[in-house]
Specification:
The protein has 337 residues and is α/β, with parallel strands linked by helices. The chain has 2 domains: 161 residues, Alpha-Beta Complex (Quinone Oxidoreductase, Chain A, domain 1), CATH 3.90.180.10; 147 residues, Alpha-Beta Complex (Quinone Oxidoreductase, Chain A, domain 1). The chain is built from 10 helices and 16 strands.
């Protein structure tokens, strides 16, 4: 079958498009999925580069998010038939493992998955839209809804708002009735975020977001008439030099939500802000099946836009991942084998 594989860690040059990779073989409880769409995530960049403590079997087919049709079923599979439209939950929640990292993923014509990973795709949801959901949108849903408890009246800042997690975070916060401030690196991206509902726009390459937030909501104070100044929530999955700045934006009792660290996982810390303003740091690790189900329902009801900026053929998967690595994207990138 056709596939894009990596045999070693490195840059875009380690991704090879091949036409003769062995088809998957099925065992007990396995299904064979004919891949129609696989969305890429920044996690795929980390997998290609290599991550401390995570052993990746080589050669590897990357691609966490997989949507397609069942091409065959293995022994013991019940309730699913050839031709069923399915989305694969990237996490193997029974045996353990992650699609596109510890087992072959979606950058191929065919993909093997365990039957308990399957999610039915409704007929009125496209493969491309479905593939955009699990990792980025699922992570955003768990972070803001399941863990973050963002609600009506909250003032929410979303950093890295133009990526997959970011554009979903903006939409979910607006659905909850929050007032949303976004940071992005260009006027074009900010205009598109405004179209998704963002109330206040900050170009972080031109202006300091802490100063802009203080101008909007006042400098946080722990006493007196200004005790309500600041933000209720900051969504920060970048880490790095934005971490302490995020703390400085939060009101007394404010919440910092994090699900990753695309810039740096070991930023400088200033715990004085945490105790002085009684801040809450809420971590969110990935998604659960309920998050995927909720997102599919939102897409069906046209309450959520998957924001797929571009699709690429399988042969151009290395270029598709480069676009994500260079942050030259708004929303999601999808490969269609």
């Amino acid at each position: 079958m056709k596939a894009v594989i990596v045999r070693r860690h490195g840059g875009p040059e380690v991704m090879d498009y091949v036409t003769d990779f062995p088809d998957p073989t099925l065992g007990e409880g396995d299904v064979l999925v004919r891949v129609r769409a696989s969305s890429l995530n920044y996690h795929d960049v980390f997998t290609r580069r290599g991550m401390p403590g995570i052993k990746v079997p080589m050669p590897l087919i990357m691609g966490l998010d997989v949507a397609g049709e069942i091409a065959d079923v293995g022994p013991g599979v019940e309730g699913w038939s050839v031709g069923d439209r399915v989305l694969v939950d990237p996490i193997n929640r029974v045996e353990g493992g992650l699609m596109g990292e510890t087992m072959h993923g979606g950058l191929a014509e065919l993909c093997r998955a365990r039957v308990h990973q399957l999610v039915c795709i409704p007929d009125d949801v496209s493969f491309v839209d479905a593939a955009a959901l699990p990792v980025a949108y699922g992570t955003a849903h768990r972070m803001l809804v399941s863990k973050g408890n963002v609600q009506a009246g909250d003032k929410v800042l979303v950093l890295g708002a133009s990526g997959g997690v970011g554009v979903c975070s903006v939409q979910l916060a607006k659905q909850a009735g929050a007032e949303v401030v976004v940071c992005a690196s260009s006027t074009a991206k900010l205009n598109r975020l405004h179209a998704l509902g963002a109330d206040h726009l900050i170009n972080y390459t031109e202006r300091d977001f802490v100063q802009e937030v203080h101008a909007l909501y006042g400098k946080p104070s722990r006493r007196g008439v200004n005790i309500g100044n600041g933000l209720d929530v900051v969504v920060n999955f970048t880490g790095g030099d934005t971490w302490v700045k995020s703390l400085r934006c939060l009101k007394v009792g404010g919440r910092l939500l994090t699900c990753g660290a695309t810039a740096s996982y070991d930023p400088k810390e200033d715990i004085r802000f945490i105790w002085t303003f009684e801040l809450e740091i809420r971590g969110s690790n990935g998604w659960q099946r309920d998050d995927i189900d909720a997102l599919l329902k939102m897409v069906r009801e046209r309450r959520l836009n998957t924001v797929v900026e571009r699709t690429y053929p399988l042969a151009d998967a290395a270029e598709a991942l480069r676009v994500i690595e260079d942050r030259d994207v708004f929303g999601k990138i999808v490969v269609t084998p």
